[in-house]
Design a protein that fits this description.
By secondary structure, this protein is of the alpha+beta class. It has two domains: about 35 residues, no CATH class; about 130 residues, Nucleoside Triphosphate Pyrophosphohydrolase, CATH 3.90.79.10. About 15% of the residues lie in helices and about 35% in strands. The chain has a four-stranded mixed beta sheet with strand order 7-4-9-8, sandwiched between helices. A three-stranded antiparallel beta sheet has the order 1-2-3, with no helix packed on it. Strands 6-5-10 form a three-stranded antiparallel beta sheet, with no helix packed on it. A hairpin with a 5-residue loop joins β2 and β3. The chain is elongated and about 60 Å long. The termini are far apart.
Length: about 180
């Protein structure tokens, strides 16, 4: 069996974003170069955040995805970091947008590289995972792209129920670190 070359991450970008020329070619594994104006565009991952949010009983707040990718599977509250926003601001905003909860205190845990399929495009991300604690999940409600929310005892958390590759890997790591 002959394996084809993997597509360059910028294969969908055919014209130079600076001058508009169609001579926009692969420069190396992480960039494309314009043969007309010489502009080199470097492809870097987008930052995303997710949170292991725990209550005073030690339960984990999980979301059920209302949209693809992974519609119907479990997820952690989180999402993409906006331009000019710190990752700390992003995790606070994402939790508020998805759950209605106001959480101020977090600690950074680790990161996981990921490829997030979106509208036929593979978005390379670096997912930054945090842990947060809140006295109670009272008053939280699913919002934005969340179908439902559930507080789950850690003994009942199953990584295979999380639909996104990086989230499932992070859940496995988080649970292993907790043992």
């Amino acid at each position: 069996m002959i394996l084809s070359e993997p597509k360059h991450p910028l294969s969908l970008f055919t014209h130079c974003p600076r001058c508009g020329a169609g001579d926009f070619v692969v420069n190396d594994v992480k960039s494309k170069r314009c043969l007309q104006c010489g502009f080199v565009y470097y492809f870097n991952p987008s930052a995303a955040v997710a949170c292991f949010l725990r209550d005073a009983q030690g339960r984990l707040l999980v979301a059920r995805r209302a949209c693809d990718p992974g519609r119907g599977t479990l997820d952690l509250p989180g999402g993409f970091v906006d331009c000019a926003e710190t990752v700390e601001e992003a995790i606070r905003r994402e939790i508020r947008e998805e759950t209605g909860l106001q959480v101020e205190s977090f600690r950074y845990l680790f990161s996981v590289p990921n490829i997030y399929p979106y509208s036929g495009f593979e978005v390379h991300t670096i997912d930054l995972f945090f842990e947060g604690h809140i006295p109670s999940f009272e008053g939280c409600r699913p919002q934005d792209d969340v179908g439902s929310l559930e507080a789950v005892a850690m003994k009942d958390v199953r990584p295979e129920r999380f639909g996104l590759t990086s989230i499932a890997a992070a859940v496995r790591r988080y649970m292993a670190d907790a043992e």
